[in-house]
Amino acid sequence: MMDMGPAALIISIAISLALIPLAIKAAHRYSILDKPGRHKRHAKPTPFLGGAVLFAAMWLTILVISLAYPDRIDLADNSLFYILAGAVIITLTGLIDDMRPLPTWPRLLVQIGVGLILVFGGVRVELLTTPWGSIDMTNYSALLTVAWVVGLTNAINIIDGLDGLASGVCLIAASTLVVIGMSHDMGWIQVIAFVLIGFLLPFLFFNSRPAKIFLGDSGSMQLGYYFAVFSLLVRFKSFTLSALFVPLLTLGVPITEAASSVIRRLITGKSLMSADRRHLFHYLSWMGLSQRQIVLVFYAMGVIFGLFAVGMNYWNRPLVLTLLVLFMVVIFVVYFILVTGLSRRLRNGSARHPRKANSKVE
């Protein structure tokens, strides 16, 4: 019998290929479309049902795999029930937000609630493994788990600003998890990564510029949620070094973007949850890069972070960690120079204003 991971990959691809075109047709027929607006870069109404397809691909695949491999995955597992409950809430909240934008705080409260659901289901941080030893986090388990879920859920959402950007970066991240998983006995947990690849491969084809369908908030938040769940389950089952660094490194691009956004807003005194046109892809656009070039820059960064993640498992860890720190320093220095330089040019009128730069990034 075929191994569980590849089987999940094939099933997920088949489901996604069948449902994505149907979702596009249904969205146009019933006007379930993301219309152009102030903080949006697309020029025409586009379906945003990518999250619904992702949900179907994930849970239909898990259902089929559980029937095909009853000794490997148990639908009666309490943790699986809580994970499903969280996915349902995240997906529905995202769909509501896509159709009628919700205020920031209700979305945040929902994400906190989903994190608490996982805690009650036993999917939580209990032992934090570092290069210098293990730390018992039992007293802070709920807080860390909720923060982890909220952080990763929003990290993917933040970079979902260009056609093919978030889906491509997540495809690289999920592929990295599969490569690293080959050296660890992750059981049914590996199905999550394989399903994500199976969804993202065909979805990226439809999501690349010009996008025929978007992830929507339901899709981007769901992706972040699944990555958070994956890393929490790995920690829960196997307290290895990779459980700490893999999710951080494989998602290095969105996490770096999220961290830079938080730092920038703290410095300028703006709300941490407000939308703006000051993300890294905006600055790259103002430099004159096309949307395709910007996406390729992010893909390249994703591959580099993925290599660091693989290196933490197969190569000299202190050396890889040192190189990672140096790489992050370079990234933030370049980002600081880019931001300050372009901000000065904007003030002096020698660069196009963000609202006039949409011909590059739509």
- Tally of individual helices: 13
User: What is the chain-wise order of helices and strands?
Assistant: HEEHHHEEHHHHHHHHH
Order of the strands making up the biggest sheet: 1-2
Question: Which class of secondary structure composition applies to the elements?
Answer: mainly alpha
| Low-pLDDT sequence parts | 236-245, 353-362
How many DSSP E strands? 4
Average pLDDT over all residues: 79
Helical percentage: 55-70%
Give the overall silhouette.
globular
Could you tell me how far the N terminus lies from the C terminus, measured between alpha carbons in angstroms? 47 Å
Estimate nothing, just give the exact number of structural domains.
1
Largest sheet: 2 strands, antiparallel
**Could you tell me the radius of gyration in angstroms?**
20 Å
**Percent in strands:** under 5%
Concise account of the structure shown:
The chain is mainly α and 362 residues long. The protein has helices at residues 4-29, 50-68, 78-99, 104-120, 141-159, 165-181, 190-207, 216-237, 241-250, 252-268, 280-286, 291-314, 317-348, and strands at residues 33-34, 46-47, 127-130, 133-136. It has one domain (4-356).
